[in-house]
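Renewal narrative, Specific Aim 1. Our central claim is that a sequence can be written position by position from structural information alone. The example that follows is taken directly from our test logs and has not been curated for this report. It begins with the C-alpha coordinates describing the chain, in the order in which they were read.
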Protein backbone atom coordinates (compact mmCIF):
# COMPACT_ATOMS: atom_id res chain seq x y z
CA UNK A 1 0.00 0.00 0.00
CA UNK A 2 1.49 3.28 -1.07
CA UNK A 3 1.33 6.44 1.01
CA UNK A 4 -0.83 9.28 -0.25
CA UNK A 5 0.99 12.39 -1.41
CA UNK A 6 -1.99 14.56 -0.46
CA UNK A 7 -2.46 15.94 3.06
CA UNK A 8 -4.90 14.01 5.23
CA UNK A 9 -7.21 15.35 7.91
CA UNK A 10 -5.16 16.37 10.92
CA UNK A 11 -1.92 16.76 8.98
CA UNK A 12 -0.20 20.13 9.29
CA UNK A 13 -0.60 22.31 6.20
CA UNK A 14 2.22 22.16 3.69
CA UNK A 15 4.43 25.25 3.58
CA UNK A 16 3.68 27.61 0.71
CA UNK A 17 6.02 27.57 -2.29
CA UNK A 18 8.79 30.15 -2.10
CA UNK A 19 7.84 33.48 -3.59
CA UNK A 20 9.93 35.36 -6.12
CA UNK A 21 10.89 37.86 -3.42
CA UNK A 22 12.07 35.16 -1.05
CA UNK A 23 14.09 33.57 -3.83
CA UNK A 24 15.62 36.92 -4.72
CA UNK A 25 16.50 37.50 -1.08
CA UNK A 26 18.37 34.22 -0.84
CA UNK A 27 21.94 35.35 -0.23
CA UNK A 28 23.32 31.88 -0.92
CA UNK A 29 23.10 32.64 -4.63
CA UNK A 30 24.61 36.11 -4.33
CA UNK A 31 27.80 36.52 -6.35
CA UNK A 32 31.04 36.85 -4.44
CA UNK A 33 32.69 40.25 -4.64
CA UNK A 34 35.71 40.67 -6.86
CA UNK A 35 38.51 42.55 -5.12
CA UNK A 36 40.09 45.24 -7.25
CA UNK A 37 43.50 46.46 -6.09
CA UNK A 38 43.83 50.21 -6.58
CA UNK A 39 47.19 50.39 -4.82
CA UNK A 40 49.78 47.73 -4.09
CA UNK A 41 53.14 48.63 -2.56
CA UNK A 42 55.86 46.96 -4.69
CA UNK A 43 57.91 46.04 -1.61
CA UNK A 44 55.36 45.01 1.01
CA UNK A 45 52.05 44.67 -0.82
CA UNK A 46 52.22 40.88 -0.71
CA UNK A 47 52.03 40.98 3.10
CA UNK A 48 48.35 41.98 2.90
CA UNK A 49 47.42 38.29 2.51
CA UNK A 50 48.51 37.53 6.09
CA UNK A 51 46.28 40.15 7.76
CA UNK A 52 45.27 40.21 10.50
CA UNK A 53 48.53 39.27 12.17
CA UNK A 54 49.78 39.96 15.66
CA UNK A 55 53.18 40.97 16.90
CA UNK A 56 54.57 38.74 19.62
CA UNK A 57 53.33 35.46 21.02
CA UNK A 58 49.70 34.53 21.53
CA UNK A 59 50.78 31.89 24.06
CA UNK A 60 53.23 31.89 26.93
CA UNK A 61 56.54 30.76 25.44
CA UNK A 62 59.65 29.44 27.14
CA UNK A 63 61.68 31.05 24.37
CA UNK A 64 60.11 34.36 23.23
CA UNK A 65 61.93 34.12 19.89
CA UNK A 66 60.26 30.82 19.04
CA UNK A 67 57.25 29.97 16.92
CA UNK A 68 54.97 27.54 18.72
CA UNK A 69 52.72 24.75 17.43
CA UNK A 70 50.20 22.64 19.37
CA UNK A 71 50.15 18.99 18.31
CA UNK A 72 48.96 15.67 19.76
CA UNK A 73 51.55 14.13 22.08
CA UNK A 74 51.52 11.03 19.91
CA UNK A 75 53.54 12.88 17.25
CA UNK A 76 57.28 12.33 17.81
CA UNK A 77 59.24 15.57 17.90
CA UNK A 78 61.72 14.25 15.32
CA UNK A 79 58.91 13.44 12.89
CA UNK A 80 57.42 16.91 13.33
CA UNK A 81 60.85 18.41 12.66
CA UNK A 82 60.98 16.45 9.38
CA UNK A 83 57.55 17.88 8.50
CA UNK A 84 58.85 21.40 9.19
CA UNK A 85 61.77 20.87 6.82
CA UNK A 86 59.43 19.56 4.11
CA UNK A 87 56.94 22.43 4.57
CA UNK A 88 59.61 25.13 4.39
CA UNK A 89 61.82 23.32 1.87
CA UNK A 90 61.87 26.12 -0.70
CA UNK A 91 62.49 28.78 1.93
CA UNK A 92 65.33 26.81 3.50
CA UNK A 93 66.97 25.95 0.18
CA UNK A 94 66.80 29.56 -1.00
CA UNK A 95 68.49 30.77 2.19
CA UNK A 96 71.46 28.39 1.74
CA UNK A 97 71.81 28.24 5.51
CA UNK A 98 73.63 25.30 7.04
CA UNK A 99 71.55 25.60 10.21
CA UNK A 100 68.12 27.11 9.35
CA UNK A 101 66.56 25.73 12.56
CA UNK A 102 68.40 26.87 15.69
CA UNK A 103 66.50 24.80 18.23
CA UNK A 104 63.32 22.77 18.79
CA UNK A 105 61.80 21.97 22.19
CA UNK A 106 58.63 20.18 23.27
CA UNK A 107 56.48 20.73 26.38
CA UNK A 108 53.65 18.46 27.52
CA UNK A 109 50.25 20.12 27.90
CA UNK A 110 46.80 19.04 29.16
CA UNK A 111 44.42 16.96 27.04
CA UNK A 112 47.23 14.85 25.56
CA UNK A 113 48.65 17.83 23.69
CA UNK A 114 52.23 18.95 23.20
CA UNK A 115 53.53 22.46 22.49
CA UNK A 116 56.51 22.47 20.18
CA UNK A 117 58.63 25.63 20.11
CA UNK A 118 60.88 26.16 17.11
CA UNK A 119 63.53 28.87 16.83
CA UNK A 120 64.32 29.60 13.19
CA UNK A 121 67.34 31.45 11.83
CA UNK A 122 66.66 35.18 11.73
CA UNK A 123 67.45 35.33 8.00
CA UNK A 124 64.38 33.23 7.16
CA UNK A 125 61.28 35.23 6.23
CA UNK A 126 59.36 35.90 9.45
CA UNK A 127 56.00 36.44 7.74
CA UNK A 128 56.12 33.08 5.98
CA UNK A 129 57.23 31.21 9.09
CA UNK A 130 54.63 32.90 11.30
CA UNK A 131 51.65 32.19 9.03
CA UNK A 132 52.36 28.87 7.31
CA UNK A 133 50.91 25.71 8.91
CA UNK A 134 53.08 22.62 9.26
CA UNK A 135 51.34 19.67 7.61
CA UNK A 136 51.88 16.31 9.28
CA UNK A 137 50.17 13.29 7.69
CA UNK A 138 47.61 15.52 6.01
CA UNK A 139 46.73 17.57 9.11
CA UNK A 140 47.79 21.24 9.20
CA UNK A 141 49.12 22.63 12.48
CA UNK A 142 48.98 26.42 12.47
CA UNK A 143 51.51 28.61 14.32
CA UNK A 144 50.32 29.79 17.73
CA UNK A 145 52.82 32.61 17.90
CA UNK A 146 54.70 34.98 15.65
CA UNK A 147 58.25 36.29 15.39
CA UNK A 148 57.31 39.21 13.14
CA UNK A 149 58.30 42.60 14.55
CA UNK A 150 55.36 44.41 12.94
CA UNK A 151 51.59 44.25 12.53
CA UNK A 152 49.57 43.85 9.37
CA UNK A 153 46.22 45.48 10.08
CA UNK A 154 43.18 45.47 7.81
CA UNK A 155 41.05 48.60 8.14
CA UNK A 156 37.54 48.48 6.68
CA UNK A 157 36.14 51.80 5.48
CA UNK A 158 32.39 51.84 4.78
CA UNK A 159 29.77 54.39 3.73
CA UNK A 160 32.24 55.86 1.21
CA UNK A 161 30.63 57.46 -1.82
CA UNK A 162 32.33 56.56 -5.09
CA UNK A 163 31.39 59.53 -7.26
CA UNK A 164 33.81 59.14 -10.16
CA UNK A 165 36.63 56.98 -11.46
CA UNK A 166 39.07 59.20 -9.55
CA UNK A 167 37.58 57.90 -6.30
CA UNK A 168 38.84 54.44 -7.17
CA UNK A 169 42.39 55.50 -7.96
CA UNK A 170 44.90 58.19 -7.09
CA UNK A 171 42.44 60.40 -5.21
CA UNK A 172 41.39 57.57 -2.88
CA UNK A 173 45.03 56.54 -2.40
CA UNK A 174 46.04 60.08 -1.42
CA UNK A 175 43.15 60.42 1.04
CA UNK A 176 44.14 57.18 2.74
CA UNK A 177 47.83 58.16 2.89
CA UNK A 178 46.99 61.58 4.36
CA UNK A 179 44.81 60.05 7.07
CA UNK A 180 46.51 56.75 8.02
CA UNK A 181 50.19 57.60 7.48
CA UNK A 182 50.43 61.38 7.93
CA UNK A 183 47.75 62.19 10.48
CA UNK A 184 47.44 58.98 12.54
CA UNK A 185 51.04 57.78 11.95
CA UNK A 186 49.83 54.20 12.26
CA UNK A 187 52.26 52.80 9.72
CA UNK A 188 52.81 52.22 6.02
CA UNK A 189 49.84 51.66 3.72
CA UNK A 190 50.79 48.63 1.65
CA UNK A 191 47.57 47.83 -0.18
CA UNK A 192 44.12 49.26 -0.93
CA UNK A 193 41.34 47.04 -2.28
CA UNK A 194 37.78 47.75 -3.40
CA UNK A 195 35.20 44.93 -3.41
CA UNK A 196 33.12 45.15 -6.59
CA UNK A 197 30.00 43.39 -7.87
CA UNK A 198 28.67 43.02 -11.42
CA UNK A 199 26.03 45.65 -12.21
CA UNK A 200 22.97 45.16 -14.42
CA UNK A 201 25.19 45.60 -17.47
CA UNK A 202 27.76 43.10 -16.12
CA UNK A 203 30.14 45.97 -15.36
CA UNK A 204 32.07 45.65 -12.11
CA UNK A 205 30.94 48.46 -9.84
CA UNK A 206 32.05 49.39 -6.30
CA UNK A 207 29.54 49.58 -3.46
CA UNK A 208 30.49 51.70 -0.45
CA UNK A 209 33.46 49.77 0.94
CA UNK A 210 37.21 49.73 0.61
CA UNK A 211 39.93 47.89 2.52
CA UNK A 212 43.24 49.35 3.66
CA UNK A 213 46.17 47.18 4.77
CA UNK A 214 48.70 48.84 7.06
CA UNK A 215 52.16 47.60 8.06
CA UNK A 216 53.48 49.06 11.29
CA UNK A 217 54.22 48.64 14.97
CA UNK A 218 51.00 50.24 16.21
CA UNK A 219 47.46 48.93 16.45
CA UNK A 220 44.43 51.13 15.71
CA UNK A 221 43.91 51.35 19.48
CA UNK A 222 47.49 52.57 19.96
CA UNK A 223 46.91 55.55 17.68
CA UNK A 224 43.35 56.22 18.96
CA UNK A 225 41.86 55.48 15.56
CA UNK A 226 38.56 57.28 15.03
CA UNK A 227 35.48 55.25 14.15
CA UNK A 228 34.25 57.90 11.71
CA UNK A 229 36.04 60.15 9.23
CA UNK A 230 34.71 63.31 7.63
CA UNK A 231 35.83 64.03 4.07
CA UNK A 232 35.04 67.69 3.32
CA UNK A 233 34.12 68.65 -0.26
CA UNK A 234 33.43 64.98 -1.06
CA UNK A 235 30.44 63.81 0.99
CA UNK A 236 28.36 65.03 3.92
CA UNK A 237 27.94 61.69 5.69
CA UNK A 238 30.98 60.42 7.61
CA UNK A 239 32.92 57.35 6.51
CA UNK A 240 32.86 54.58 9.12
CA UNK A 241 36.01 52.66 10.13
CA UNK A 242 36.31 49.24 11.73
CA UNK A 243 38.88 46.47 12.10
CA UNK A 244 39.22 42.99 13.58
CA UNK A 245 38.60 43.27 17.31
CA UNK A 246 37.12 46.77 17.16
CA UNK A 247 34.27 47.47 19.55
CA UNK A 248 30.68 47.75 18.28
CA UNK A 249 29.83 51.18 16.89
CA UNK A 250 26.42 52.83 16.96
CA UNK A 251 25.29 54.52 13.75
CA UNK A 252 22.70 56.54 15.70
CA UNK A 253 24.64 58.29 18.48
CA UNK A 254 28.09 57.76 16.86
CA UNK A 255 29.56 56.21 20.02
CA UNK A 256 31.48 53.02 20.73
CA UNK A 257 30.33 50.09 22.84
CA UNK A 258 26.90 49.22 21.42
CA UNK A 259 24.93 48.90 18.18
CA UNK A 260 21.91 50.81 16.96
CA UNK A 261 19.17 48.51 18.32
CA UNK A 262 20.68 48.77 21.81
CA UNK A 263 21.43 52.49 21.75
CA UNK A 264 20.32 54.14 25.03
CA UNK A 265 19.66 57.44 23.26
CA UNK A 266 17.45 55.82 20.63
CA UNK A 267 15.64 53.57 23.09
CA UNK A 268 14.82 56.55 25.30
CA UNK A 269 12.91 58.06 22.36
CA UNK A 270 10.99 55.00 21.17
CA UNK A 271 10.20 53.45 24.56
CA UNK A 272 8.92 56.45 26.45
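The sequence written for that structure reads:
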Amino acid sequence: MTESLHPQDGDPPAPPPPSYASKAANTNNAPSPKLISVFNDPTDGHLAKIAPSHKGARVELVNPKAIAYMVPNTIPVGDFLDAIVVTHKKLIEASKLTMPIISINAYNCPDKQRRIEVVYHERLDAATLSTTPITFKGTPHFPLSSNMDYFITKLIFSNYQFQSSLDTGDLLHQRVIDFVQTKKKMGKVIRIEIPTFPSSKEILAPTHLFYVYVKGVYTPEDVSMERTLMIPHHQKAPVRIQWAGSTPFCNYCRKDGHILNRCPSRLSLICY
